[in-house]
Amino acid sequence: MYKINVAVLFGGCSEEHTVSIKSAMELAANMDTEKYQPFYIGITKSGIWKLCEKPCLDWERYAKYSVVFSPGRNTHGLLIQKDAGYETQLIDVVFPMIHGKFGEDGSIQGLLELSGIPYVGCDIQSSVICMDKSLAYTTVKNAGIEVPDFQIIQDGDSPETERFGFPLFVKPARSGSSFGVNKVEKAEDLCAAINEARQYDRKVLIEQAVSGSEVGCAVLGTGTDLIVGEIDQISLKHGFFKIHQEAQPEKGSENATIQVPADLPAEVRKRIQETAKKIFQVLGCRGLARIDLFLREDGQIVLNEVNTMPGFTSYSRYPRMMTAAGFTLSELIDRLIELALRR
Ligand SMILES: Nc1ncnc2c1ncn2[C@@H]1O[C@H](COP(=O)(O)OP(=O)(O)O)[C@@H](O)[C@H]1O
Ligand SMILES: [Mg+2]
């Protein structure tokens, strides 16, 4: 039987490098090797692409060959650099398991569009919009769904703190895994929070704090043909959700617990799922996305953010929500690859 050649990309130059490796490890452990021939490509933090045997935290030790996807359509695959020159390897589909900058922001999608190789997940345009929280808010608000009030702070802009009150949130417009995010309780701390967010992105957002709880919805599919996972819900003891900043997220979080399925009435869960599907469609997503929302105390659903390549680590929310709805990780991988090839 012909095996589908799948190139799995992981690592990358962003602050989410390690999260991406952990996601790729789960992918590798659950990919059916009777059906697929995987090619694992690790990208170092400095942006070097290497073919390696499997994703693991010290994958660079086992990576032998430099490798590239040509942006031209000559090869439909990889150019593997070996002693005398390049060897080519046909690739049927790419699974870009890279989070954040250069993974979810449309850049890798651009390369793959040029190369003509099908890939899992959102296209350039929806990746760009979802990666920039201000663009996602504007698009989603335009469709009649509530979003937090926010202000964009670029060089020289003054924060309109009276508009938001305290606490407020400061974050990079385009980052992830809570890097550079701060809950600011008083005016004196605002400047430091903006400077911290700026380390990740020149474009910084100030947001009104939304009170209530955080809920998530995993969406898979394309157009109106969408499946959703069970809703999850985060309970916070204090502060805000930042599991990826913790020392041992595999063992749980210091301030947060995630319950899936959420302990909410069926009507509320359904409403969250329908809102998530609508957001997925409005943003032009395809393949997969995790829609993170706030459920306000008055029952109103408010957008938090959309992750177009959500984490697949052992403790990640997307696979857990889908598993709770009856889809194993292997089934998810099958469906995602099928969707990518159908395009
Ligand atoms: N406007 C807000 N109101 C309340 N909590 C927020 C707000 N923005 C962010 N948070 C908290 O900070 C966490 C991380 O922020 P988020 O916008 O999701 O950034 P990231 O892309 O890094 O995950 C959220 O999960 C939530 O706990
Ligand atoms: Mg988030």
TrEMBL record:
Keywords: ATP-binding, Cell shape, Cell wall biogenesis/degradation, Cytoplasm, Ligase, Magnesium, Manganese, Metal-binding, Nucleotide-binding, Peptidoglycan synthesis
Reactions catalysed according to its record: 2 D-alanine + ATP = D-alanyl-D-alanine + ADP + phosphate + H(+)
Names of the cofactor(s): Mn(2+); Mg(2+)
EC number, UniProt record: 6.3.2.4
Pathway: Cell wall biogenesis; peptidoglycan biosynthesis
Major location (coarse): cytoplasm
Highest taxon of source: Bacteria
GO MF, any single term: D-alanine-(R)-lactate ligase activity
Residue intervals of the ATP-grasp domain: 137-338
Location relative to the cell: Cytoplasm
Database matches in InterPro entries: ATP-grasp (IPR011761), ATP_grasp_subdomain_1 (IPR013815), D-Ala_lig_Van_CS (IPR000291), D_ala_D_ala (IPR005905), Dala_Dala_lig_C (IPR011095), Dala_Dala_lig_N (IPR011127), PreATP-grasp_dom_sf (IPR016185), VanA-like (IPR058165)
Methyltransferase in keyword set: no
Physiological role: Cell wall formation.
Family: Belongs to the D-alanine--D-alanine ligase family.
Protein name per UniProt: D-alanine--D-alanine ligase
Gene: vanD
